[in-house]
Amino acid sequence: MADDDFDGLPMYVEEDQEEVEAEKQKRRQQSRQPPPPRVTPEELARREFNRAMARKLIEYDPKLGDSYYTRVWFLDFTKVDIDEETQYGPMRYTDSIIREGHELIDSLNMLCVKIISSDVGYPISLYGTVILRDSLDLKCNYIFRRDRDNCQHINSQGESLILTGPSRGVVFRGNAFFEIDLKIREGRECDDKQFNKALIDVVGSQIRSVVQRETVDSWRSEVELIFAYVKKALEGTIEIKILSGPESFCGKITARTTDVSSHTLLYDSDVHGAITVGDDRVIQLLRRVVSVADITGA
């Protein structure tokens, strides 16, 4: 065999030795690292419980022909009751001292929930809930809630639900979640039909305009959520007091912000009846909270 046949052998042997040493060094470093934390039986049980709860929130939608989550599914259900209502109300910081440099948070104003179409025609009697969950606590903040004995009657396409919330300003740190669960009342409760049921995720990075529209095609209907994005928001709480005159008020009261032309319905005597305002003469509003942009640039 010629000498030239052995010219490359030492180089390959050295490379093999370098790889072996590198592997040894890697094992030594790994041996010095703390072992991964041991998963306790309690943690395994918690994870399995959360997975089981999340599976219950998946429902088949016959209109779409597939299964979807209908409620927020990523909560720790060992600590959170998915049906618990937010404990935070409006005017939490009315008497607080706001420090200089405090950064305001974005918000959403719910403008309306419109019935775009009904696969079962009209008129229909609707009941159920529309919930808005935000970054503050992810708990239920109802914008529509009626039981079976207090249905709203929808007579034609394009009518809107009569909203009664949110109960406080919406804290929008990039995500908010709508949960829709509307049913049609029939003669007997066992014959009631699902009208719309869905989970809608509002993602801040996808917002391109002040007024946002989310169309929800589900079960036997098409529903449109219309809301306004409010940047660097302040929570406005409204109270209307009758200073003189009759102790009841007939008509409608609406509010709007300068950057959105749509009006928010605060009071409608056709809904309430001509309500006596009580000893303090304050009108009981459908909604009393709106978010407004801070135009001072604070």
Helix content: 10-25%
Q: Average pLDDT across residues?
A: 88
- CATH top level assignment of the domain at 66-91 and 103-234: Mainly Beta
- β-sheet strand percentage: 25-35%
What is the N-to-C order of secondary-structure elements (H for helix, E for strand)? Answer: HHEEEEEEEEEEEEEHE
Radius of gyration in whole Å, from Cα? 29 Å
Structural class of the secondary structure composition? alpha+beta
Contiguous helical run count: 3
Point out poorly predicted stretches: none
**Per CATH, which architecture of the domain at 66-91 and 103-234?**
Sandwich
Question: Can you summarize the main beta sheet?
Answer: 5 strands, antiparallel
> First CA to last CA: what distance?
86 Å
Any idea of the CATH topology of the domain at 66-91 and 103-234? Immunoglobulin-like
Beta-strand segment tally: 14
Instruction: Specify the overall morphology.
Output: globular
Biased composition (Acidic residues): 1-21
Region (Disordered): 1-44
Domain DUF6598: 108-292
Organism: Panicum virgatum (Blackwell switchgrass)
